[in-house]
Amino acid sequence: MKRWLKISLGIFIGILLLGFAGLLWKTHAEAHNLINAPMEGRNLPDETPADYNLPFEDVTVTNGDGQVLAGWFIPSQSGAVIIMQHGYKSTRSEMLNEAEMMYRHGFGVLVSSIRAHDYSEGELITFGMYELGDMEAWYQYLLTRSDFDHERIGILGNSYGGMLSIQFAAQNENIKAVVANSAFSSLNDTVATSVKHFTGLPEFPFVPLIVFWAEQESGFKTEDIDATKSIGGISPRPVLLMQGGADTVISSGSGQRLYDAAGEPKELWFDPALGHVEFDSERAAEFEARVTAFFDQ
Length: 297
Known about the structure:
The protein is built from 9 helices and 8 strands. It has 297 residues and is of the alpha/beta class. The chain has a single domain (19-296), classed as Alpha/Beta hydrolase fold, catalytic domain (Rossmann fold, 3-Layer(aba) Sandwich), CATH 3.40.50.1820. It is elongated, with a radius of gyration of 21 Å.
């Protein structure tokens, strides 16, 4: 009897160890996939500004790490230019609807991409630790152009791009106005929601281990990726935040957290019925009116 108990206990312990090893392997693999984007498995643009009858140039910059980044420049008719930054593992074509809208209202547009996205070089995604350097490279590119007023640069970002736009504008006072559509407030705030969306895994026990592996591989700490710590630095320049209450990609409380942390002037457009970055498609007329009026100021 004792022998069978020992055997049973050994089998039970073995199963537990195998299960734990499987959990470690699964979370490590998911973390790697979340922060890496090799070109062969990456989303690439399926449209260009030509599909929207927009005049444009294919442009590139080289960031401080020697990586070549891809973008489009759409000329300004009014002298003002809006930088537009797409979201996580998305492409420049995500922003073409907004670019066409702003061009009709006289604005020029720089549709930027960052490392590990689109046709830009690099594979590691660090949620701003290095990508803010990419945004700076695009800003410096704009300063080399003489076909618009360098004192009239705004920025509009979707989701992850919205978070980057907030952080970049906070450190660059020459960005005169910021629109952030469904930007997450911080990694710690949104990680459980986002991991569930992108992996289908529940928060426990997966999220803490995925965060651990991601931090080990990338070198960032989740607590350092926090736009609520920087958004106050944009004031007295204006900020327009948009957040849908039915957002399942990021924490639906992100917009309110960012708004609470921002200085004046600030505005939060919250719609409880909308999902992630749906304002321009589901509320198209109001989106156009609000965004163009905001930048016109």
